[in-house]
Amino acid sequence: MIAPARLAAFEVVRRVFESGAYADRVIRTASEGLDTRDRGLAQRLAYGTVQRKRTIDHGIDVLGSRKAAELDQPVLAALRLAAYELAWGEAPARAVVHDAVELVRSAGRPQAAGFTNAVARRLSEGFRELVRALPDGPLKESYPDWIFEVWERDWGAEEALALMRAQNEPAELVVRSSVPVGEPTDVPGAYRVDRSDLGAGEWQVQSRGSQLAALALGSQDGERILDACAAPGAKATMLHGEVTAVELLAGRARELAANVERLGVTNVTVVNADVRELDARDFDRAIVDAPCSGLGVLASRPDLRWRAKPLPELQLELLRAAAERTRAGGVVLYSVCTLNADENEAIVDAAGLEPEPLGREWPQYAHPKRPEFLLTTPHRHGTSGFFVARLRV
């Protein structure tokens, strides 16, 4: 019998790499019916395997008889899952190898059972030491070279390495709640919790960095507020005033509307449109939480590192569109969940708007190079990475 957590993790790994699915969405359905312990274990195994793909495939190439790229997909998924546990887990090697073989059988590949067993055994004997012997860098920490190169350029090699390591660890679980729950944090309304703290209630899973971005807008009752890229609605549902929440994609607009209803929020109107074509004007404040490479949320979105790409042209277009729809003297807040100067301060500089000194309001999160901005980072603050700039139109 295959351990239930491994079976669920196997499904996630396969769907991510065979179908391009998103791990954070697949894990919800794959772990249905599991108890709390197995659900948590399944997520840890799935996320860790997806994150460590580059290092794992290197190990298979070195220790296996065939290259990882040559393997049948179910066999590769089973070996990747086994390799993750063998190098970074504590389960007995015999159980890990046994379940790798049984996972291959369950996937309709009984003819590959002997091969899987042989490679898994080699991994159990040598993979952990192979990983330890790798030089520090993107191969050992399992990142694309370009991400390391961006962080090394912006922060230096030591901080780039710290960022990579931090986002290979599970992200803290933080919720926004009007009722105290778990442990309070330095962001008002943000509470650090574990799953056992959460019962029924109007809470929203949302990192401190994300909540900080919405709070920094400073929206007030009686104001007209534009949320230019609103789905899934975590920030929109934090805002005061009359909020127009714009979302381009119809499916995500429906998700946004469902979250607004679930949280009992009555001041948000959802609009399925492109903010660049929106007729409404003269908003008092606007927030642009722009699409980005997501380099600040890689811990909670493990597959993103393999599909991420910078989007500076789109970000600048969206920021300018929001500014054009904000009255003179109004405020636009630009935020992105990435750690890349090309998508962060360079976009603000190109927009030509006057920054307000946010670092004075939130000194613990002041950008270390540009203190008029905010920058939360996984390795310094233990939360997701967010860049935040508040700009006067």
Q: How is this structure best described in words?
A:
With 393 residues, the chain is α/β, with parallel strands linked by helices. It folds into two domains: 4-134, N-utilizing Substance Protein B Homolog, Chain A (Orthogonal Bundle), CATH 1.10.940; 206-392, Vaccinia Virus protein VP39 (Rossmann fold, 3-Layer(aba) Sandwich), CATH 3.40.50. Helices cover 45% and strands 15% of the residues. It has helices spanning 4-19, 23-30, 36-51, 53-63, 73-88, 93-106, 113-133, 138-141, 145-155, 157-166, 208-217, 250-262, 312-324, 345-351, 358-361, 378-381, and strands at residues 174-177, 183-184, 190-192, 203-205, 224-227, 242-247, 268-272, 283-289, 326-336, 354-355, 374-376, 386-392. Strands 5, 6, 7, 8, 9, 10, 11 and 12 form an eight-stranded mixed sheet that branches. Strands 2-3-1-4 form a four-stranded antiparallel sheet, with no helix packed on it. A hairpin with a 5-residue loop joins β2 (183-184) and β3 (190-192). α1 crosses α5, α4 crosses α5 (73-88) and α13 crosses α14. The protein is elongated. The termini are far apart. The model has no long low-confidence stretch (mean pLDDT 95).
What portion of residues belong to β-strands? 5-15%
Low-confidence stretches: none
> What would the CATH topology of the largest domain be?
Rossmann fold
Query: Mean pLDDT, nearest integer?
Result: 95
CATH class descriptor name of the largest domain: Alpha Beta
Architecture (CATH level 2) name of the largest domain: 3-Layer(aba) Sandwich
Rg: 23 Å
Query: What count of domains describes the coordinates?
Result: 2
Structural class: alpha/beta
| Main pleated sheet | 8 strands, mixed
CATH superfamily of the largest domain: Vaccinia Virus protein VP39
Number of helices: 16
Please give the share of residues in helix: 40-55%
Distance between the ends: 63 Å
Order of helices and strands: HHHHHHHHHHEEEEHEEHEEHEHEHEHE
In one word, what is the shape? elongated
Number of strands: 12
